[in-house]
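Explain this record to help learners:
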Amino acid sequence: MEFKGVITALTTPFKSNGEVDYQGLESNVQHQIDNGINGLLALGTTGETPTLTIEEQQKVVEAVMGLAKGKVPVIVGTGSNSTAHTIEMTKKAQEWGADAALIVTPYYNKPTNKGLYEHFKAVSDAVSIPIVVYNIAGRTGKNIDTPTMKKIAQLENVECIKEASGDINQMGDVINEIPKVKVMSGDDSMTLPLMCLGGTGVISVVSNLVPERVVAMVDAALADNLEEARKIHFELLPLFDVAFIETNPIPIKAAMTMKGLAGGSYRLPMCEMEPENKEKLKQVLESMNLL
């Protein structure tokens, strides 16, 4: 697949009884396709994947694939803090027909740089689908520094990096020093700055709500129409901010519900927004004429 444009990190809607709302998920996927999205990510952080059983994960992928296959590529999140489990899930994703696998930095156990490389090498050696390396120290407690990322990027199946380190200098170094792979933003608010340095797009949370606007911004940036891209960036900036006023995906799912999309409920430890934050979210959506 071509790692370029806007790839939506899909939410997983739940019914009030806690079951996965597969019909709602399919409705969201169709909404994404109808609004020109370039790809979809199932089972990412935004999908509350740690709370899903293996059976539910497979059904989520099947639901997404059923609508998206042949229309837009589908990436499946398979990473964990266990190399063996990551290999198992990446093999399953390959069997399920995924176009690529998103593999997050192993979290909690905070491996050494050597351990990081060996982790990604073991996974790359075990499968044949493209791998997106997901660097997000704020979630995992471990940043992949640029020298280590350069080694990881030489692995045969590593084709893209989802950069969410929050450090624009590191992002620039990754783009400049590792031309072999594409680099996509993992932070909505950093998409345009990253693309100005040579990034190819975003794996987005906010595009769950406004796919057409995020696509318009990224398309403008890819066409070197920075004036238009900057205009859309600043129009979306209040939404970029409020979408992370609480832990993702709590605000984006609340915003989707407000807009009439299948936001759904949450599974613990994710929970409903605090009332004051929900009101702030509503005010931003109203000011942007999204309600």
